Amino acid sequence: MTPPDSPVDSSPSHYGRLAGQRVASGRSPSSVPDVVGRDPELRRIQDLLDRARHGAPGALVLTGEAGIGKTTLLDAADRLAVGFVRLRARGVESEAALDHVALLELLTPVRGLLDELPGPQADALSAALGWGRDATGGDRFLVAAATLTLLASAAATHPVLVLVDDLQWVDRESAAALLLAARRMRDDPVVFVVTTRSGLATPGPIDGLDVLRLAGLPAPSAARLLHGPIAADVVDRLVEMTQGNPLALVEVADRLTSAQQVGAAPLPDPLPVGARLGAAYEQLLTDLSSSAWCAALLCAADVSGRASVPVEALRRLVTDPGAALDEAEAAGVLVRLDGALRFRHPLLRTSARALATPAERRRAHLELARALPGDAAHAERTWHLAEAADGPDDRLADELVTVAETDRTRRGYASASAALHRAALLTTDPERAAERLAAAAGDAFLAGDLERTRTLARHVLDGSAGSAARGRVLGTLGTLEQYAGSVPRAADLLSAAASEAEGAALVVILTELAITRFQLDDVDGVVECAVRIAGAADPGDLEQRALSAFTRGFARLFAGDPVAGRTLLTEFLAVVEAPRLRDDPRFLPHLCLAVGLLGDALGADVVASAERRLARAREQGAVGLLVPVLSLMAAGRAMLGDHRGAFADAGEAVELGEQLGYVADTAYGEEMLAWQSAARGLHDDARAALQRARELVVRAGTAPFAAHHAITAAFCALSAGDAARAVTLLEERMAADGGIGAGGEPLGVAPTLVEAYLALGRTDDATALAERFATATPPGASPLSLALVARCAALVAVDLEAAVTSYEAALVAHAEAFEAFEEARTRLLYGSALRRAGHRVAARAQLSPALEAFATMDLTAWERAAADELAATGISVRRDRGTAPEALTSQESRVAMLVARGLSNREVAAALFLSPRTVEHHLASVFRKRGFRSRTEVAVAFSSAERPTL
């Protein structure tokens, strides 16, 4: 369906506002112009709204201490957004463990647009928010993508204002979805205004969003706020003592005696300033009668959001629940609104929980559990009973494990982790408790909560856990380090895990350990993993058999036995195509590594398998898995000549890696992005990507082993005409490790370094290195290595005849290597040599296919170089798209490739976690840069070659 003609009117929440009372800003609840002392902030908000009215998105995070006026500005934004679809949600501290609570509150007004979402996104969002019967969905990244798409759909006819109050208490799953939408909403008129309390961690990073820190009010503004019979010098003292905190000013002023207001009596000391602001709320609570206090405590412990639950519990505890609620509301503690009971300010909830004794808290949770109706509230009731427990309870612990199993698919891994953690605390058997803690750590890692993962893991490792729990948690920590920390540290942790684990868990850990040791150039360590996995794996278990074949083949290749290595990797490729494994995305990283290792031995079916699994991973929202996979896919595509796909995959890997905080895999993606940028003449982009990659490589602890980084940086330097820089980089690698290549091949730096030496006139050095390269490369080496050896010999040949002989030998080897770029590069060098020798016709025979190949690969800088060489032979080159094609960005390439496959803009947006309007923007750039007039032309160009016409 489409939005109604008038915007959905999401009325502003009355949270924190009481009719007839002053609010923290000093304005009446109904008039934005009366907001005191916040003109600059209001101008920022107004500017965002005005730009949205012209089609631009925006986001602003308001941060400051409690009571500084964040909610007041949120209310002001709500009132200023005339003609907007206004959506609002708030974080509540006691509800932070309930996944998607805030998202449900925010998106319910636009639920009618659900049919406009792609099927997997609609299913995931429906499952997460309880809008559908399907309990198998709810993947956090599909939910995030669905949130973005739903907001973009709501903005199709009217701009949208998203207001999120108290982000620090929003549940992690809702925060992840909303923050992703705020970052990736690039072309839709959606404005996000979010508040968060300073000093408290947010459930997701706000990096990349504009942050406005609110300061206290100056004395003139404070006088306007208080506008009562308070002397000017008293106002000055209050501002000094409260640091201008508006809520503190109002709360304290309301408690001043007449003498204190005029300065005749000393002010209360101490005042509730900053961290002490809660004292004002504690006073409100301690002034309540026992019945009203009971109502407040039940409201503080309740997570249902329905007034009926705490009211029913209250009936069991007091004789007149209505009077108790009336008193709490009159005192400014509780607010009854739309069938819910809420605190007037979040600090009141915090203060109520802090003031309650442990016995009072347990009694409140027990009564709330009894008040919950029916089996539908099983999970909520179980949680209340867990909070009410005063000691271990194995039956209740088992119930929480059941809740965790359900939450893992319905509510997300964070909820599952919380349930398992609490179950562990209630479990009497120490070994069983440790296993549940280890499982909680694993779920926390999958949820992306790295700090919680480490904390839970420490509890396991510091206790008396058995080998199974210790092995599991060490494996989790090792994988965490491999993705988001130090690779050497990851190797240590995985080694420790391998000494504790057994069976299937050991096979998985040994595979991860082998890959980690490969990143550290530890040949002996990789071989050790292969030996151990050969004895540990159960050949009757397909998963173990596949991982064993992969690890052993990987080790054989790395150790210099290519025949045995290829045989084992071929076995791996066959096993993972078994029906039970063929669509399992967990094998994608191994499949991509096999692509890179086997290279020319691959068939189209292997590439199709990788594509199928990648599509499946996208459907499942497996974004965390996509980072290493896309980096490896970029390398594999480049090797097979699909540089458009490589550019697209590298860019996506980098974007997702930055968002998830990954290190080593993001560094590799940055290097691939730098190579692709340099090959397109985007040298500033290449330098920026290399700098980011270098920083990540250092963080990952792999700088001493970073052959791929050095070789990539040298290629970028040579592409930019800086041969001296290329020589410096590669001579450093020669000194460090003898110049081995990124795949461990001997003297792998030689092809680029020989060219750089010749560009600097260092002919003797180039000749000596070419000879060493030929000697170091065995006859049984890969066809690509043999082709590069012959090309280096041609470059340093003493005469044209010798050069031609070597170039021809190189082309014969290239024909078996299937590495399109290097073959085209060889033809360009060969044709240039022939042209310089005066053999123009022969030169054209090499330069024409080189030009065609570079154009097909969309490597515009190399295409220009080939065109210039061909023009120097006397041939005029025409191209349908003009004489100097403009390079596409990585994301433009991604969009164009998916459009070429026949996907609609909406389908492209779903695949790339973008809004349809952002896809339209990128596609328009593709049309402009390449002169396309239809999607059909995009399909033709990106599914075949853009061939120049001679």
Model description:
The chain is mainly alpha-helical and 950 residues long. 64% of the residues lie in helices and 4% in strands. It has 46 helices and seven strands. The strands form two sheets. Strands 2-3-4-1-5 form a five-stranded parallel β-sheet, sandwiched between helices. A two-stranded antiparallel sheet has the order 6-7. α20 runs antiparallel to α21 (450-462), α28 (588-598) packs antiparallel against α29 (604-619) and α41 (840-857) packs antiparallel against α42. The two termini are 52 Å apart. The model is unreliable at 1-31, 880-884 and 944-950 (pLDDT under 50).
The fraction of residues assigned to DSSP E strands is under 5%
Oligomeric form: single chain
Mean pLDDT: 84
Strand order of the largest sheet: 2-3-4-1-5
Cα Rg: 32 Å
Biggest sheet, in brief? 5 strands, parallel
Protein structure class: mainly alpha
Figure out the total of helices: 46
**Strand segment count:** 7
Q: Report the principal-axis shape.
A: globular
Return residue spans where pLDDT drops below 50 for at least 5 consecutive residues. Answer: 1-31, 880-884, 944-950
Helix content: 55-70%
